[in-house]
Design brief:
277 residues, alpha+beta, ten-stranded mixed beta sheet, 26% strand, globular
């Protein structure tokens, strides 16, 4: 793992450059997803993307489209989602975060803003992502921080969960790990590292990969919880990879326990490793 090399599969295109006369701005966004229908604009509820775009329109006077690095589901959180937008505004790039944060609700914050590098695209240039899933493994659910954890009241064998997860490391066809409704053109993904650890009452799953299918991390988390509780036989992960059968796997864990920690680009290998220290 110390020689981790994040590989780009993106072919450069016109989308990697802003229109003439505009600059491309890069944002790092943190949000509590509890009140939102997800990152992407939806007709059935407010989204993080919509909220950002509306704030940017007020700030710049332009009709702004924001492109995100990820499309987190309803109720999923983010500490480091990356996004970009193109604008003719002459606002100093590093000041955009300060201006936006006066207009955004308190559960969305732009942690950093600046000019994007030449040829940068928040989605297509991404080389990896780090997710964390947290279970509160106690008889009673916690009161503080409950919106960032899922509750598992029965004992969990964390070393067994960790061993079970190791079968996912490497490049595999993860078709069995995608929820219905996934529109991915390919279900092949590479997981570089996955760990399950205990931190007091919390059982924490941390996973680094080049990309993830719809509900993939939540399906992994739910399956590991069933294995750790003795409700599903060990080897379920390996069997699902071999058969492609969703029925080999456990439930889809609740969205509230999932947080996108970071989106990784070229040169971010050390950042990726830091989440496993």
């Amino acid at each position: 793992m110390d020689d981790l090399h994040l590989v780009s599969r993106h072919r450069p295109s016109e989308a990697d450059h802003p229109p003439e006369g505009m600059r491309r701005f890069k944002l790092t966004v943190e949000y509590d997803g509890t009140a939102y229908s997800g990152w992407q604009r939806q007709i059935n509820g407010p989204s993080v993307q919509q909220t950002l775009e509306e704030a940017l329109c007020r700030l710049t006077g332009e009709r702004i489209a924001v492109t995100g690095s990820s499309r987190t589901d309803a109720g999923v959180h983010a500490l480091g989602l990356c996004a970009h937008f193109d604008s003719a505004s002459r606002i100093p790039p590093e000041k955009v975060s300060f201006a936006l944060n006066t207009m955004l609700p308190p559960d969305i914050r732009v942690r950093e803003s600046g000019l994007a590098a030449e040829g940068f695209h928040a989605r297509y240039a991404a080389r990896g992502k780090v997710y964390r899933y947290v279970f509160c493994n106690a008889r009673h659910m916690c009161a503080i921080g409950r919106q960032y954890r899922a509750h598992v009241p029965f004992p969990l064998d964390v070393p067994l969960m960790h061993r079970e997860a190791q079968s996912l490391v490497g490049t595999h066809d993860f078709a069995a790990f995608a929820a219905s409704g996934s529109v991915a053109r390919s279900t092949v993904r590479t997981l570089y590292r996955i760990e399950v650890t205990r931190r007091g009452e919390d059982v924490v799953l941390t996973v680094l990969g080049d990309g993830f299918l719809y509900n993939m991390v939540r399906i992994i988390a739910g399956t590991l919880a069933e294995v750790g509780a003795g409700r599903r036989a060990p080897g379920a992960m390996a069997r699902a990879l071999e058969t492609g059968d969703r029925l080999e796997l456990g439930y889809t864990a609740p969205a509230c326990g999932l947080t996108l920690l970071a989106v990784l680009y070229g040169g971010d290998e050390a950042v990726a490793l830091s989440y496993f220290a």
